[in-house]
Amino acid sequence: MKLADLDIIVTSPPAPGWGGRYWILVKLTTDDGLTGWGECYAASVGPQAMRTVIEDVFARHMQGESPENIELMFRRAYSSGFTQRPDLTVMGAFSGLEIACWDILGKARDRPVWALLGGRMNERIRAYTYLYPLPHHDLTAFWTSPEMAAESALDCVARGYTAVKFDPAGPYTLRGGHMPAMPDISLSVAFCRAIREAVGDRADLLFGTHGQFTTAGAIRLGQALEPYSPLWYEEPVPPDNVGAMAQVARAVRIPVATGERLTTKAEFAPVLRDGAAAILQPALGRAGGIWEMKKVAAMAEVYNAQMAPHLYAGPVEWAANIHFAASIPNLLMAETIETPFHDALIKGGIRVENGFVIPPETPGLGIEVDEALARAHPFDGDGLHLQMQEAPCDYVNGNSFAGGAPLKTQ
Q1: Any idea what DSSP says for residue 116?
Q2: Position with higher pLDDT, 400 vs 237
Q3: CA-CA distance, 279 to 271, in Å (whole number)?
Q4: Helix axes 242-251, 265-273, angle to 10 degrees
Q5: What b-and-e string marks burial along 321-354, b requiring 16 or more CB atoms within 10 Å of the CB?
Q6: Which one, of 292, 323, 291, 318, lies nearest residue 114 by Cα?
Q7: Fewest Cβ atoms nearer than 10 Å: which of 257, 278, 342, 376?
Q8: 108/31 Cα distance (integer angstroms)
Q9: Is 0.70 surpassed by the pTM of this model?
Q10: What is the pLDDT confidence band of residue 410, given thresholds at 50, 70 and 90?
Q11: What distance in Å separates the CA atoms of residue 312 and residue 276, rounded to the nearest whole number?
Q12: Distance CA 13, CA 124 (A)
């Protein structure tokens, strides 16, 4: 059995676009007709440029190879061009293709992917979700409204969720770390207070920041949030500054989480070694794939750290996350996004039930991709999957971040 053909579909979820502006799905076919699906979570170049990268990685390192030889193909991609170092774009391409290989291998053996990864450690996966606007909420006002956030959190708890994430401390600026404005700190505290009062001890609070603060700013904000006991303080400083993140971890009494923008064990290892985070959040469609993150999970186990796979993409990456999560002993929880489009794209193959996900028993990833639906929603914009703003932090009028991708009319 050899990898023979590649197809790439860039699909755009309907507005408001929870999960990003587009998802890059890859379909591999072997010479004996088996197909496997993967998803490339890559955000630093546009989808057309990324398509070319994916095609090059496949043709150069994978085409004609057995899908079993994942370690060999990884080393080829990792070493390509005399590099042997993490490359965000190349690893993003390889990661989605690697996930598709596991889908093929599971189908070839008539077993779910988790069974090929050491077996099922976890019979159900604790899920968490972002707080999204409810149907009656004003989409613009929601992101700065503690009251609406608390109402959304109650809705999540009613559906069985035991953890909810929110990130009111915007903006997300490409200028690097900044000191939070005092109104941003006050708003963040108000969010934590309102949500904690609403849900009590029925749900953990997960506070996101997306790496936007200076070390001093992150410490200042984090200490203000401590009375509400969030389960984690996510990426409080830019992800490339492990030493600064370790300073925050020592100064703030909230566990630090990071990892959605890291790739390969080479970038995760210093986080563990320096005590920068207690919770790792790999995005499997970017971080090197399932096998590479099994290695990271093993490293994290030695450091008594937990894994919480990240998801801000489509349901194919989510399926990979679920199989990975099922197979590791140091799982905390896994991010989920519940929209009708996510569900329809994999024909309901995996779902959240009362706040948990049951790993599928069906072969491969356990999903059937609705290829016609994916092709019926092509991406025709010019933005990236996610984008940061150029304007600096506004210390006069306040800041906000309208989570996810903006409406297509904006």
Answers
A1: G
A2: 237
A3: 10
A4: 40
A5: bbbbbbbbebbbbbbbbbbebbbebbeebbebee
A6: 323
A7: 376
A8: 12
A9: yes
A10: very low
A11: 23
A12: 27
